[in-house]
Design brief:
alpha/beta; TIM Barrel; 8-stranded parallel beta sheet; two-stranded antiparallel ribbon; 14% strand; disordered N terminus
Length: 347
């Protein structure tokens, strides 16, 4: 998920869990006289942000998976089918994700990725333990991002129906954990119109199951046709159900890639954000690199969050750091700091 999780796992390198880059720094102020001294020492109450922050588990994929992603998506999926727990080669254990989010980053909301728990799709004892961890830390489970289960835009009807069925256990888990949604993929092979028709049908079927359990089905701009904002917005319009929506991602607007995985055709991310926000049930704040002022170098976070605010959004914005310069912990903290700066400025 560099702009597309499938492309990301082809190019991943391992990283080592580092220490925080953006810890709290003491505020040093010079005083010219008694009057200014009193004024500058006043504590300013920050504005309450119009959104809440959650941690997307993919931000720590290197720390959970280690080197198991380095050989590409094919071997990784094979491993998921044969022995998924063998892929968890990192220094962190996914079962501790809620604890890590709260104790390391001060966040009280998390968004899971199913591939970290692929062997646990029917193990409710495991999920009871996970829920106990969340309750113990006061952490809310927001949603589950689902991959490697099949695509809603699969043009082969039998495979599409199989993909829908494959998602049912994760809807059940989401309900048990108190999530509001699962995130699915609207990918598929074929023309834009053929895949769109298939996605409308697939999402329609899965949404019916989700609705019966009180769980929303949301789609991320996640490569291929789905990274075209107008295309995905039209899919949402055709499904036309309040239990089906989008998860706009700041960075996933690459439609096609070159052989070296660089982006060949990219959709305008700000236009795409504007097109997807009317259907948004969540937002993914994708971050890669930061400049000296703490701003993301590829995406104008202020502009993106202004689009979200103007659309009337007030839900969760997840931290999804995928950079290589900073460690995962440092990148997460940098993204939190940037979102808070932007959020307070806009609120």
């Amino acid at each position: 998920m560099i702009s597309n999780r499938r492309e990301n796992i082809k190019t991943l390198t391992t990283d080592v869990l580092g220490t925080g880059l953006l810890g709290a720094l003491p505020l040093i102020q010079s005083c010219q006289n008694k009057s200014t001294s009193v004024e500058t020492n006043q504590t300013k109450t920050p504005n309450k942000m119009f959104f809440d922050i959650s941690l997307a588990q993919w931000s720590l994929h290197k720390s959970f998976f280690g080197d198991s992603l380095s050989k590409g998506f094919g071997p990784f999926v094979k491993g998921l089918r044969e022995d998924p727990d063998s892929l968890l080669r990192g220094e962190l254990d996914p079962i501790n994700f809620p604890i890590i989010a709260k104790q390391e980053y001060g966040l009280n909301a998390v968004e899971y990725v199913n591939t970290f728990y692929f062997s646990k799709s029917k193990d409710m004892d495991f999920w009871k333990g996970m829920k106990d961890r969340c309750d113990g830390e006061g952490v809310k489970s927001v949603l589950i991002m689902c991959d490697a289960l099949g695509d809603m835009g699969e043009t082969d009807e039998s495979k599409r129906k199989e993909a829908v069925t494959n998602h049912h256990p994760w809807v059940d888990i989401a309900k048990f954990m108190g999530c509001h949604a699962i995130r699915v993929n609207a990918a598929g092979s074929g023309s834009a119109e053929d895949v769109k028709d298939a996605a409308v049908q697939g999402l329609g079927l899965l949404t019916e199951y989700g609705k019966s359990n009180g769980i929303k089905i949301i789609v991320e701009n996640h490569g291929g046709h789905s990274s075209n904002g107008a295309w995905l917005a039209d899919v949402m319009t055709q499904v036309n159900d309040p239990f089906c929506g989008t998860l706009p991602d700041f960075g996933n607007f690459c439609i096609t890639r070159n052989e070296d995985h660089s982006c060949k055709e990219e959709y305008d991310r700000y236009l795409g954000m504007s097109e997807l926000m009317p259907f948004a049930k969540g937002i993914s704040a994708k971050a890669h690199e930061f400049d000296a002022e703490g701003n993301e170098t590829k995406t104008d976070f202020m502009r993106m969050m202004k689009i979200a605010k103007d659309a009337g959004y007030s839900g969760y914005v997840d931290i999804e750091y995928e950079g290589n310069t900073l460690s995962e912990p440092d990148g997460i903290r940098a993204t939190i700091a940037l979102l808070k700066k932007v959020g307070e400025a806009l609120s």
